[in-house]
Amino acid sequence: MNRSSGNLLLFFVVPVVLLLSSCASTYYNAWEKVGYHKRDILVSRVENTRDSQQDAQVEFKDALEQFGSIVTLQNTDLARAYEKLSAEYEDSQEAAQEVTDRIDSVDGVATALFKEWQTEIEQFTNADYKRSSTAQLRQTRSRYDGMLSSMRKSEASMKPVLDTFRDNVLFLKHNLNAQAIGSLKGEFASLQDDIAVLIREMNRSIAESDKFIADLRSS
Question: Which partner from 1, 125, 168, 181 sits 20 to 30 angstroms from 205, CA to CA?
Fold first, then answer.
């Protein structure tokens, strides 16, 4: 990229970044005016993420059940089987994207909250207050980092499942014959294992979320 192209890119990108930052600040300020602070928004978004993970588990289980029904039936209507499996894949993909969006929204408000908290700490003139608030911030960030790490692990666990689903949906689409069903049977056990990992990681993340919410509300 030459210098003129780079400058042109900055010309468009920087205002967008500033606008998004300004929009986020305006959003938080509007809620604070009605008594709903960043901490409250964070709790709400963690709860929403937890709920979306529970919904995603249901979608992936349904998709696995549909996959299993295809590989175990004889004389399956392959075109119909493809349509059902494709629909389940799309539902799972949408559920996974919602989980990702929810996690990103949690991280967004947490970043704003911790930045504000640190700024306010610097305003203390009372050393004891400052030391206490600093320790509380450090503890909260540590608990948050653990929860976010668990959320990201659950998010990552969806990828191999989605990849396997996509590959098999496409293979079935391209090979509507008995040989395709035979190939799907070979993938079923692997898919079961991947979904078991996904559910385990999501349950761990959900437990971390519940604990973080309880800690935040009690502090």
Answer: 168
Q: How far is CA 79 from the centre of its chain?
A: 33
Q: Supply the pTM of this predicted model.
A: 0.82
Give the Cα separation of 60 and 3 in Å (integer): 48
Instruction: Note whether 65 and 134 are same-domain residues.
Output: yes
CATH of the domain at 64: 1.20.120
Beta-carbon contacts of 197 under 8 Å, excluding residues fewer than 6 positions away, are 157
| Residues of the chain where predicted confidence (pLDDT) is lower than 70 | 1-22, 31, 73-76, 178
Q: Examine the domain organization and report whether 198 and 97 are in the same domain.
A: yes
Range of the domain at 43: 38-218
Which residues fall within 8 angstroms of residue 169, CB to CB, at 6 or more apart?
82, 85, 86, 89
Long-range Cβ contacts of 160-164 (<8 Å, 24+ apart): 160/194, 161/60, 161/92, 161/191, 161/194, 161/195, 161/198, 162/89, 162/92, 162/93, 162/96, 164/190, 164/191, 164/194
User: Which has the closest alpha carbon to 150: 97, 191, 200, 112?
Assistant: 200
Task: Work out the mean pLDDT of the chain and round it to a whole number.
Answer: 85
Same-domain check for residues 42 and 101 = yes
- Cβ–Cβ contacts within 10 Å for residue 113, how many? 20
Structure tokens at 141: 């960030």
